[in-house]
Design a protein that fits this description.
eight-stranded mixed β-sheet, alpha/beta, 8 strands, 13 helices
Length: 304
């Protein structure tokens, strides 16, 4: 019998309440991702909050809709750092500790922010891991600033040329918040029903950071929804330019994704020259957490 999946918000409260239980009382290994202090940098007129840890070639992680950098699984980031990487996570404009500009928030603007962050941190170029809406930002970044991106990983994302396969109704409700929850609170959409253990582990890992706030403001979420909608409709010319990308691209997804369904990743793999595709038939939107061991091996081979 399958265990019912709770919302992320409810599970966070449950795990916190169980903090004194023997199973959770044992101190886990220190997590660099969960303890690295937050810093800020001024990048093209906006304050961007970021964290950086590890040694080696830099890899920048771009978060998806509604999420702050606290929403990344610290243990996943730690594992990437152990592969000999300098890991950088940051808050997109208006999320977490990053500032807000005047004017319309767009995928293009957030892509330019990512390029400016890479530059301001002193890197000539970086590898990029871009998830969900972050994958849209990653595509725009790679199209507009190809010299800043060495290799690009697009996880659970969608094209920007109007050829999108839309979310299911449940996915749309989560994105619009009609169920009273943002995407990162829709726990049963991030993991498949038989992956409760992986999902619970993810929440416990997020809580390794004291005062973690993985979900950003409602106001910025609405702006991100509009920005993503324009991208998916093909209104941004960057979305039609991905066929020109020359850097190596790895595309990943889960076959049960209801937010940005698997046909989107398969389409991107055909659209982007020489792109590699990896799909997990028993995973969903957060496949790289559920299938962490397998995907980390693929990442390592891809990034070199």
């Amino acid at each position: 019998m399958r265990r019912p999946l709770l919302s992320l918000a409810a599970l966070v409260l449950a795990v916190t309440a169980l903090g004194a239980s023997p199973a959770l009382a044992a101190k886990p290994k220190p997590s660099p991702a969960a303890t690295t202090p937050t810093r800020t940098v001024r990048a093209d007129g906006v304050r961007l909050a970021y964290r950086a840890f590890g040694e080696g070639r830099p890899i920048v992680f771009i978060m998806g809709i509604s999420g702050t950098m606290d929403a990344w699984d610290p243990r996943f980031l730690d594992a990437v750092a152990r592969q000999g990487r300098r890991v950088i996570v940051f808050d997109n404009e208006g999320m977490g500790r990053s500032g807000v500009r005047e004017g319309e928030l767009t995928i293009r603007r957030m892509g330019d922010d990512a390029a400016a962050l890479i530059r301001e941190l002193g890197f000539r170029r970086a590898d990029v891991f871009a998830w969900s809406m972050g994958g849209m930002i990653g595509q725009s970044l790679a199209v507009r600033h190809p010299r800043r991106v060495r290799r690009l990983i697009l996880a659970s994302t969608a094209p920007g040329d109007g050829k999108v396969t839309p979310p299911t109704q449940r996915g749309l409700d989560a994105i619009a918040g009609t169920n009273g929850a943002a995407v990162l609170s829709s726990y049963d959409l991030l993991f498949t029903p038989d992956a409760a253990a992986a999902g619970e582990s993810y929440v416990e890992n997020v809580l390794l950071r004291k005062s973690a706030k993985p979900v950003g403001s409602r106001e910025t979420l609405l702006a991100q929804i509009l920005a993503s909608g324009h991208w998916l409709a093909g209104d941004d010319p960057d979305g039609r330019r991905v066929a020109r990308l020359k850097m190596p691209v790895l595309i990943g997804g889960g076959a049960h994704d209801e937010l940005l369904p698997a046909p989107n990743q398969r389409y991107l793999a055909r659209r982007i020259p020489r792109a590699r595709l990896v799909m997990y038939e028993d995973a969903s939107h957060m496949f790289f957490v559920q299938k962490q061991r397998s995907f980390l091996r693929r990442m390592k081979r891809f990034l070199g």
